[in-house]
Design a protein that fits this description.
Elements (H helix, E strand, L loop, with lengths): L1 H22 L6 H25 L8 H13 L16 H24 L6 H15 L4 H6 L13 H13 L5 H24 L6 H9 L2 H6 L6 H19 L7 H14 L2 H19 L4 H25 L6 H5 L2 H5 L2 H15 L11 H15 L5 H22 L5 H32 L10
Helix pairs in contact: 1-2, 1-3, 1-7, 1-8, 2-7, 2-8, 2-14, 4-9, 5-7, 8-9, 8-11, 8-20, 9-20, 11-12, 11-13, 11-19, 11-20, 12-13, 12-14, 13-19, 17-20, 18-20, 19-20
C-alpha cells in the first residue's frame, strides 16, 4: 500500500515528463524535462482537479482523467522539435560533491518526515488539511469555504498545493500521509535541479554544482524541505519563472515564452504573496525588454496564453469559493504604517539578524553572506551587462524590497509576523538569489562557460 502511495506522485511526474518530451520537445533534454515535470504535474493537476470539483464530479473519478492523459500520450502523434541540450561538460569532483550533498540532505529529511507524517506548521493547519477537505468533501465546496472563519483560517489561500495533492490522491486510491511527504521531497530535489540547470542555461555551468550544493546543505532548507509547506513550491516556481524570462532576453537558446507565462501565473495560485512576486517579475521583464527593443507585440500574447490556465483558475477560485480576499486588508493602511520610522528599524534589524551568522540565527549559516557577497562582487566587476543579467539583478533586488515592504506595511503584529514568516520568505528568494550571484561570476572572472549544446 505504501508503495502505491509513493508511486502516485512519481507516476504523475512520469506522465508530465512524457508529455513534455512528446508535445514540447524543444524545451530541453531529459534532465531539463525532469526538473520541469513537477511544474506540469502539480500545476496542471491542481488546475484540472479544481475544475473537476467545480463542475461537481467526484474526487476518486479524477483518476479517469489521468488515464485519459496516459492514453493521449500514446495514441496521438508527437510534436517535432529540436532538443536544446543543457548539460555539457561538468567537473566530476563538483558533481560528486553535489551527489554527496543530495544524499546527505535526503538522509537528514527522512527523520523529520517520520516524526511529523502530517507535516509541520502551516502544512498541518492549512495545506494538507485543505487537500483533505477538497478531496473528501461530497457537498459543493463554495459554501464549505464560506464557513472557514477566523483570523487563521485563511479561506482565500490558493490551492495549487492542496489541489495538486488531491489529484495525486486519485492515483493512490485515496488520501494518505505518504503522498504529501513524497511531494515535499520532490520539490526539494526539483528546486536544486532548477538552480543547476538555470545556471547551465545562463552560461555559468561550472558554478552550478556549487550553487545547488549550497542550497541543499542550508539548514533552513533542510528545516522547511520536509515540513510540507508551500514556501519551497514558491521558490521553485519563482526561480523557473525568472530563469525563463531572463533567457528570453538573452542571445542563446530560448525556452518558449508561454512557459514563462505559465510559471508567472502559477505563483499566485501557490501562495498569496506569489501575486506580488509575479506582478513585480512580469513588470520588470517588460521594462527591460522594452529598453532592449524586444518585440513585445509578439512576446506578450504568447506569455498571456501560457498564463491563461493559472490566471483563469485563480480568478474562478476567488469568485466561486473564496469568500474574502486578504490582500485588500493588507493594502488598507499600509502607507500610513510605512510612515512609522520604528517599523523600518525593526524590519531592518530582523533582516540583519537572519543574515548575520553570529547573531544566533544559525539556520542560514554562512549561506546568505556568501551568496550576497558573491553576487555583489560579480556585479561590481561587470556593471555593464546584457539585458538578461540586468533582469536577474532587478529580480533579486525587487524580491528583497517586496519582502521588506510586506513587513513594513503589515497589519499584523510586526514582531510576531517577522518571527513566524521572515525565514520562509527568504527561503522563497534563496534559489533565485543563488542563480543571480553565480551567473555574475563568469564575467567577473573573465571566464565564459560553454554555452548550451557545446562541449
Amino acid at each position: 500500500m505504501i508503495l502505491l502511495q509513493v508511486s502516485a506522485p512519481l507516476l504523475a511526474l512520469a506522465l508530465a515528463w512524457l508529455a513534455i518530451g512528446r508535445w514540447a520537445p524543444g524545451l530541453g533534454d531529459r534532465w531539463e524535462r525532469i526538473v520541469l515535470a513537477p511544474l506540469f504535474a502539480l500545476g496542471f493537476g491542481s488546475v484540472l482537479f479544481f475544475w473537476w470539483r467545480v463542475v461537481g464530479l467526484s474526487s476518486p473519478a479524477f483518476a479517469a482523467l489521468w488515464l485519459a492523459a496516459a492514453l493521449a500520450l500514446t495514441a496521438f502523434p508527437a510534436a517535432r522539435g529540436t532538443i536544446a541540450p543543457t548539460l555539457g561538460q561538468t567537473d566530476r569532483l563538483a558533481v560528486a560533491v553535489f551527489v554527496a550533498a543530495l544524499a546527505l540532505s535526503l538522509l537528514l529529511c527522512v527523520p523529520r518526515l517520520l516524526q511529523q507524517p502530517l507535516g509541520e506548521y502551516d502544512a498541518v493547519a492549512i495545506w494538507n488539511v485543505r487537500a483533505l477537505t477538497i478531496w473528501r468533501a461530497e457537498e459543493p465546496l463554495g459554501p464549505l469555504f464560506a464557513r472557514l472563519v477566523g483570523s487563521h483560517a485563511h479561506p482565500d489561500y490558493p490551492l495549487l498545493l492542496p489541489a495538486g495533492l488531491a489529484a495525486s490522491f486519485s492515483l493512490a486510491g485515496g488520501d494518505n500521509p505518504v503522498t504529501p511527504q513524497a511531494v515535499s521531497v520532490i520539490l526539494l530535489l526539483a528546486t536544486a535541479g532548477s538552480i543547476w540547470l538555470g545556471l547551465r542555461r545562463l552560461h555559468a555551468g561550472p558554478w552550478a554544482p556549487l550553487a545547488a550544493t549550497l542550497f541543499l546543505l542550508t539548514p533552513e532548507v533542510l528545516t522547511w524541505g520536509p515540513a510540507q509547506c508551500a514556501d519551497l513550491l514558491v521558490a521553485y516556481l519563482l526561480v523557473l519563472a525568472a530563469t525563463c524570462l531572463a533567457l528570453r532576453l538573452g542571445s542563446g537558446p530560448r525556452p518558449p515564452a508561454w512557459l514563462g507565462g505559465l510559471c508567472l501565473s502559477l505563483l499566485p495560485w501557490a501562495k498569496n504573496e506569489g501575486l506580488l512576486l509575479a506582478a513585480a517579475l512580469g513588470g520588470l521583464w517588460m521594462l527591460v525588454a522594452a529598453a532592449g527593443r524586444q518585440p513585445l507585440r509578439k512576446e506578450l500574447p504568447v506569455l498571456a496564453l501560457g498564463a491563461a490556465p493559472g490566471v483563469v483558475t485563480l480568478v474562478a477560485f476567488k469568485v466561486l469559493w473564496s469568500p474574502h480576499a486578504e490582500l485588500p486588508d493588507f493594502v488598507a493602511g499600509a502607507l500610513q504604517r510605512a510612515t512609522q520610522a520604528p517599523r523600518w528599524h525593526t524590519v531592518a534589524s530582523a533582516f540583519w539578524s537572519e543574515w548575520n551568522p553570529v547573531s544566533g540565527h544559525a539556520e542560514w549559516g554562512l549561506v546568505w553572506p556568501v551568496v550576497l557577497a558573491t553576487g555583489l562582487l560579480g556585479w561590481a566587476a561587470t556593471r555593464r551587462a546584457g539585458p538578461d543579467r540586468l533582469f536577474l539583478r532587478g529580480a533579486v533586488a525587487g524580491g528583497l524590497v517586496l519582502c521588506f515592504g510586506v513587513y513594513v506595511g503589515t497589519p499584523a503584529d510586526l514582531l510576531w509576523h517577522l518571527d513566524t514568516s521572515l525565514d520562509r520568505l527568504l527561503l522563497q528568494l534563496l534559489p533565485l538569489t543563488l542563480i543571480w550571484a553565480y551567473a555574475e561570476l563568469p564575467g567577473a572572472l573573465g571566464v565564459r562557460s560553454p554555452i548550451d549544446g557545446e562541449e
